[in-house]
Amino acid sequence: MAVSPDGKFVYVAENYGNRVSVIDTFTNEVTDTITVGDSPSGVAFSPDGKYVYVTNNGDMKVVAAGGEKNYPSTVSVIDTATNTVTATIPGFNVASGVAFSLDGNSVYVTNSGGTTVSVIGTPAGGAGGDGGNGAIFGRGGNGGNGGDAG
What we know:
Helix content: under 10%
Strand order of the largest sheet: 1-2-3-4
Distance between the termini: 27 Å
Number of strands: 14
Radius of gyration: 15 Å
């Protein structure tokens, strides 16, 4: 969960509900729920409070009747003005933790399925949300996840 920079809202990842709940800190009431990817975990606000990035662990392998099914690990970008998902960024290895750089130009995502951190470049210090949120690349460990958010 994460508190908005102005302290007015808390965004809480509901891992089993595949959604994020928005809580008004004045009334302590849920004011909105936002559907995100499979098994949301980490939540981080952009420094300006305009965007929230949510890591979605995904269930990499689920064995059920009819065989195995893979669910992708992604990052959802939420526009806080409308509380809608404006982009879903693929290419992670069980995305879990998430944090912004102080200038808002980069988002760091830990990959629990490996020993890497992926870095998402954001346009001009904001968090974008147009589906083109910069490159995703891994650092350290086994070289990361590679890929392109475009």
